[in-house]
């Protein structure tokens, strides 16, 4: 194997490998890093020249939803005053940089998932499997957005208001009164804007349509 090809193979093999001890292998960063000027939310921040950078492969809740402010605070804490390093850089339709983001050897994309403040969005990247594993652990331990506060199975504040309003990935808004075949399996994910309703009219007024499984 040619020397330059061997170097490329070794670089890919060492990128972002999570060890059983919970530490990360050394990363060969491709730049001197960037100063973070401002954290906008749990998955986006601003670097020099007002360039926005988004964490690759994960989504944090919007600031107005459950966990949004907490996710932002966690990302701010992780970055601190450190310079960040960007790997596997692409750009999205809004001209934002989307990348795996590191502080030292620590991949923030995976660490945010580990603490339960972001969800894996299945975008291909070298940290994808680690992110998925971290997310499942956070879900099992009810951390962050998977806590009872942000993903409640019951409406503890108003038990009588038990109609579930669900926002699907495709953008459809469906509501589920008791009696729907998949009512028990439907989780009110407040970190995605899901809501509880007291009446079907209330749900319909908010733009939700009764789920087909309810007929």
Could you give the topology of this structure?
Blueprint: H1 3-14, E1 34-35, E2 38-41, E3 44-47, E4 51-55, E5 58-59, H2 68-79, E6 83-91, E7 97-103, E8 106-107, H3 108-114, E9 119-120, H4 128-140, E10 163-167, E11 173-176, E12 195-197, H5 200-205, E13 209-210
Parallel strand pairs: 4-7, 11-13
Antiparallel strand pairs: 1-6, 2-3, 3-4, 5-9, 6-7, 7-8, 10-11, 10-12
Helix pairs in contact: 3-4
**What's the shape?**
elongated
Number of strands: 13
* SSE class: alpha+beta
Number of domains: 2
What's the CATH class label of the largest domain? Mainly Beta
**Weakly predicted, low-confidence segments:** 1-22
The ordered string of helix (H) and strand (E) elements is HEEEEEHEEEHEHEEEHE
Characterise this structure.
The chain has 215 residues and is of the alpha+beta class. It folds into two domains: 3-146, Beta Barrel (OB fold (Dihydrolipoamide Acetyltransferase, E2P)), CATH 2.40.50.90; 163-214, no CATH class. Helices cover 23% and strands 24% of the residues. It is built from five helices and 13 strands. The strands form three sheets. Strands 1, 2, 3, 4, 6, 7 and 8 form a seven-stranded mixed β-sheet that branches. A four-stranded mixed β-sheet has the order 12-10-11-13. The protein has a two-stranded antiparallel sheet with strand order 5-9. Helix 3 (108-114) runs parallel beside helix 4. The model is unreliable at 1-22 (pLDDT under 50).
Notable characteristics:
single chain; 215 residues; alpha+beta; OB fold (Dihydrolipoamide Acetyltransferase, E2P); 4-stranded mixed sheet; elongated; disordered N terminus
